[in-house]
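User:
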Amino acid sequence: MLCGWGIEKAREELEPVLKSGTWDGLRAVREGRIFYTDGNHFFNRPGPRLADSLEILA
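Assistant: Predicted structure:
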């Protein structure tokens, strides 16, 4: 849910972090449960899309 980045940019920027092992202690990383979202459009701004954001999480 990185602010200012869409899904593709988030994926691109996160790959080196995941490969570095920095987050290996996180259960979600160990279990392969990493998800990318478009923070700009759904999570980082209040408004009508908040309901859409909840549906994405569900």
